[in-house]
Amino acid sequence: MWVRTRTELRGVRRRRPNSCLDHLIVAPLWPKYGVNLGTLLRTCDAVGACLAVPRKPWIRDALAKGNTLRQPSCVHWVNEPVTWLAAQRATGSDVVGVELTDESIRLVELRPARRRTVVVLGHESDGIPLEATELLDTAVEIPMLGTGLSLNVAVAGSLIAYKLAGLV
């Protein structure tokens, strides 16, 4: 088995970051832990997605600390999360939320995005607020066998992003 060297990997990776492709937007709009945002930003880069985050004083620092990429990434700043989500839906975007509802589909049933899609991630303890849940076109459940109630936002967002990007 041959393991690729860093030089070989650099040869097949993009030299410049993705500009805003405006196809897949991962939106942790109610983040609890800043450390997860940098990790999620790196996943967005890997799948060609943008990150949408609330405009809060601590978010910019959290992204700077957690982002290990050397190039700037696509970040959309959101002032009012629910208003922003309603606007995304009104312009024809699919709005997919990671949430347990009566109508949630399992992760395995989620198909790759065929048009502009916003992935909504809620607060790690409280989930997506009710007024935002009403704006979802699809709710996705990530099955868990353990005793935890949820995954952290970086892990959940990464799973959904890879699935919607058609990479798994």
Outline of the structure:
This protein is an alpha/beta fold.
Helix content: 25-40%
Q: Mind telling me the C-alpha Rg?
A: 16 Å
Structural class based on helices, strands and sheet pairing: alpha/beta
SSE order, one letter for each helix or strand: HEHEHEHEEEHEH
Taking pLDDT < 50 over at least 5 consecutive residues as the criterion, the unreliable ranges are none
Shape: globular
- Residue-averaged pLDDT: 88
Q: Tell me the strand order in the biggest sheet.
A: 3-2-1-6-4-7-5
- For the secondary structure, the number of strands is 7
Largest sheet: 7 strands, parallel
Tally the helices.
Answer: 6
Strand content: 15-25%
Q: Gap between N and C termini, in Å?
A: 22 Å
Would you spell out the secondary-structure blueprint of this structure?
Layout: H1 6-12, E1 24-28, H2 35-47, E2 50-54, H3 57-66, E3 75-78, H4 81-90, E4 94-98, E5 105-106, E6 117-121, H5 130-133, E7 138-141, H6 153-164
Parallel strand pairs: 1-2, 1-6, 2-3, 4-6, 4-7, 5-7
Description:
By secondary structure, the protein is an alpha/beta fold. It is built from 6 helices and 7 strands. It has helices spanning about 5-10, 35-45, 55-65, 80-90, 130-135, 155-165; strands at about 25-30, 50-55, 75-80, 95-100, 105, 115-120, 140. Strands 3-2-1-6-4-7-5 form a 7-stranded parallel beta sheet, with helices on both faces. Helix 2 (about 35-45) packs across helix 3 (about 55-65) and helix 2 (about 35-45) runs parallel beside helix 6. The radius of gyration is 16 Å and the shape is globular. The two termini are about 20 Å apart. The mean pLDDT is about 90.
